[in-house]
């Protein structure tokens, strides 16, 4: 409950808006009764000043450049934890003890295969389909296969659906990749950990033995952790809104994948690497900086800027360190794209346009360099982001479904269209 209230006076009305105080971050003015008491809406396109829910999962401080999963700073989790442990933390709120971790890992491992019939889904797509199109289709269709985990009101079915989605997303993403390059699907292996299994399903072929490089698997696992959740971003809000209507979890996650695909959101990792490759050399950077600042030019520095972070994105810092490690590990020296990225970052952070607008590299700026060095085509970057974010979408969806205050999301609008008018026969127009 709120101890304090903000006073709102207009049109002869005096309203009190309770002030809700968080564990950390800005206070919230509770406007839930505003329309009933004041017959007015608030207006906030893009929700720049609007909290859509309360949550215990992830906290971001954009000014301090902080990101916590259940209170644990992302830098510590990226260094000391691993993705499946982070999944447990996001889903259940606490770090697991060894028994809980083993049980969770066993449950996920035993759900990594998809129904054999789903192999035929892929056949309906063109080989050159973007893997995100395939993933949206296949994940949405999973509700046609797993009827025993679509009743959102049954906590047991919610749990089974959550495990299935976390377990099968790498398999579906790897299948989308294999299908796009005309190679046979590779089944998951229960003797490999989550990240190693994904690399194995993507890069092994039946014709020869394939050993996953443990250092690359660790780098892959860290990328999964960095992308796991990010409070109420566009795709998570999409999942929550879809879930608020009672849609099954597979349909909700498919909606999240569709939203993440946009270049302003998760699609930025593909766009950022393509931009760096388009720039080509450090000599060309000034021209692109000029274009990014030109209001008449739609070009933006992809991988730069963020709705919340008005300081550095803590994930970008870890990703930048990881890029150096992976390229060094792979013996890739003088990587022109990484040189362009680092010089672009240096110049942008000294340019008053970017400084004034508080534009810093975000999570998508360096990730593509690592993924490209690992052998992934740019089209696989956003599917990997979707794979990683599935646990965050599910944790947020479960939190919403389990909230007794949960109701269907239904924003209103500021109507500025035509006033009421009568129909005119075509003869009178
Ligand atoms: C992700 O929300 C999340 O948490 C998302 C995410 C997650 O984990 O879920 O963090 C993942 O989506 C990261 C963001 C990836 N997107 C990109 O890298 C695309 C490039 N960046 C932008 O398009 C932009 O910065 C956004 C969309 C990310 C944020 O946009 P905002 O908050 O709506 O800010 P804005 O578009 O109003 O920009 C503010 C100003 C504008 O100039 P003015 O109109 O005030 O003069 O900054 C300018 C913009 O033109 N600007 C840029 C810019 N980003 C913003 N100018 C040049 N290059 C850019 N990248």
Model description:
The termini are far apart. A three-stranded antiparallel sheet has the order 1-2-3. A three-stranded antiparallel sheet has the order 4-5-6. Helix content is 49%, strand content 6%. The chain contains 18 helices and six strands. The chain is globular. The model has no long low-confidence stretch (mean pLDDT 95). The chain is mainly α. Helix 9 (214-226) packs antiparallel against helix 17 (363-374).
Terminal Cα span: 58 Å
Report the radius of gyration as a whole number of Å: 23 Å
The unreliable regions are none
Largest sheet: 3 strands, antiparallel
Main-sheet strand order equals 1-2-3
> What structural class do helix, strand and pairing data support?
mainly alpha
Give the total of beta strands.
Answer: 6
Tell me the overall shape.
Answer: globular
- Note the run of SSEs as H and E: EEEHEEEHHHHHHHHHHHHHHHHH
Strand percentage, roughly? 5-15%
Q: What small molecules does this complex bind?
A: s-citryldethia Coenzyme A
Helicity level: 40-55%
Helix count, per DSSP? 18
For this structure, the quaternary state is single chain
Compute the average pLDDT. Answer: 95
